[in-house]
Amino acid sequence: MRIVADAHIPFLKGVFEPYADVVYKAGPEICREDCLDADVLVTRTRTRCNAELLEGTKVKMISTATIGTDHIDLPWCAAHGIEVFNAAGCNAGGVMNYVFSAMYGVASRKKIPLQGAKLGIVGVGHVGRRVERMGRKLGFQILRCDPPRAEKEGPEDFCTLDELLAEAQIVTMHVPLDESTRGMANDDFFGKMRPGTIFINAARGEVVDEAALLRARPKLGALVIDTWCNEPDVNQHLLSECDIATPHIAGYSYQGKQNGTSMAVRAVARRFGFQGLEHFYPETEVDLHPVLIDVAGKSQGQVASMLQYNYPIFTDDFLFRTDPQGFERLRSFYQYRREFYVE
To answer: Model's pTM, two decimal places?
Structure first.
């Protein structure tokens, strides 16, 4: 059996070797020739899994150590009998940490009050739920927009996108990328926002029309961007307009990477009967359990300081601004951070 795997998936090397012949390559460099005799691809978002890569190969399964699947041509894979597994929710805690470190960071720098503010969450799936939970514990008023959930669960606890944009003082994007969400943050979207709104995108770059965002920039109170159109070739004008700009690393926590790799490995183990890997979870030499932060009775400034201590997000911003051409290198060699949570 042969497995082709992205060389930058952490905690993976050595795991499959007792069961299969494993080839490691950088994600963007994986090509059709690598896959001709492969049974499984273990990927990240940087491998475009489409007909060009997979036509005529032996690949039976793609296991991606990521939440998103927009790098995979799902209809083509389904039509050709290739199973696809994604690590749904693996990095939700890391993205949640990113959102609040960024939010409190820009609010501190720009003297924006957050106490009792309305936090609008667009997309309330794995990540959005974590953002909602943290937001409630920090005293935000929560506005939730998720049409598929509203249709399934009833509209009572959800609002329309127009309502959210008209009321929210912070808007954070957590939708998957598909044809219904591609370019959804357009001129109309930004036109309905309140002046002074903090806008955060840590979902996928293509959910935002970047030209529309630049036109709307003067009305925004702060702008935080982690995901970009045309990665790794980011819009330099947009980068210069951001209060915080990072190279698609919002979910890069130790726990997120452990979760993603373990879920990808377990899926392959179940499919091919790799006994001993059904409950695989990466071991580390240090304690990586999430850190509990006590915010009871703390001021906005104190909370901001605690969040920055646990995740100094402006360091990531600085490293990216000084080397925007190093987008992929910064991601591949990122120093993963430990997650935090509040009770």
So the answer is: 0.91
